[in-house]
Structures are given as C-alpha cells and as structure tokens.
Amino acid sequence: xxxxxxxxxxxxxxxxxxxxxxxxxxxxxxxxxxxxxxxxxxxxxxxxxxxxxxxxxxxxxxxxxxxxxxxxxxxxxxxxxxxxxxxxxxxxxxxxxxxxxxxxxxxxxxxxxxxxxxxxxxxxxxxxxxxxxxxxxxxxxxxxxxxxxxxxxxxxxxxxxxxxxxxxxxxxxxxxxxxxxxxxxxxxxxxxxxxxxxxxxxxxxxxxxxxxxxxxxxxxx
Length: 221
Prior knowledge:
Residues 3-121 form the Response regulatory domain. By secondary structure, the chain is α/β, with parallel strands linked by helices.
C-alpha cells in the first residue's frame, strides 16, 4: 500500500486528489495538511511514502516544508512531489534542488496523478509527465551563476555518459536503447551514479549535471 500525504491550503484541491487516489487499490491518502508546518508535523507522524506539496501555503511555505522533511533522517524514505499551477513556476527549480523528487501540474489528468504516485513511490523521479523534458531544461537554465562542481566526481566514463543522458530527460528504457544495453544494466548504472554523487534521485542528478556545466538546455536532440 502506497501511503500519501496531501499538503495544499485549498480544500477543494485536496478533495479532488483524495477522490482520484481513493479509487486505487494500492494507494491510500493517510493525511491532509492545510499549511507547511502541518505538513511537516504529519509527515513525521504518518511517515507517508509520497507527499504532494503545494508551494504557496500559509504559516510555512512548501519549499521550507520540503527542506525540513528532506533534512530529517527519520524521513529519508519520504518522497515529495511539488504541486504547481504554472509550467514555469519560479519555485520549481528551488524545490527540486532542495530535495523534491519532481513536480506535477495541479490540472494534470487523473491518470497522470496516479502514475506519479507509483513512479515516485518506487524511488524514481518524476520530472513532469505532461510538461516534457524541455521544461526541466528551461527551469535549470534560469540559474544565473551555477555552483562549481567536479566534471566527473569520480564517475567512470560510462557512468558520466549515463548521468548526462538522465539530465537530458531520458528514461532508463531510452538510455538502454541509445547505448544498446539492457534496461537492468541502465538502471544499475543510474543507481551507482546516484550513490557516488550522494544524491537522492534522478531529479537531483539533473540539477547536479546542469550546475556542473555538463549539459545545457536543448543539447540532446
């Protein structure tokens, strides 16, 4: 059973999400929060698998709530998906850099919401199912002064290649096809890259690659 926490100050939004997710046999909404502080408290209390976190909330905004949850060692298995109204929300980049596993538009189709829960719960990052990889590139390109980072950080040549392809938005299946390797091998490489870099998931790997200057928006066609 995938346990979900909904954090949004709009009751109708929470009700809509609960209604959609409530019909799935493997998903259960365990709590709802109307502000960021309540989201942090309920995350510690309920230990959900996935938190849907609105950015703009009273008391404590979604970005700070995300940081506090990610910083808590007891909540290391909790995955956070940022809810946003606009595709190029100015807070999306900061949220992912702060530890969120991805983001979802509030007007996403029900099927996208359900898929999001399952993808993130199994440890993968969701870099916007309907917004496309171009959005990630656009958000990342808004950083004025990328923080310096090692070019390879001890990665092997193949691992560095894998990191670049993940940053370009390719899935494990697409990486396997491009490099003519098996899906299992691609998945193993991605896991090793994350481990070596000390990153939570693919979303943070994308940010690392842009900040390290390894990739630029639109480099892969």
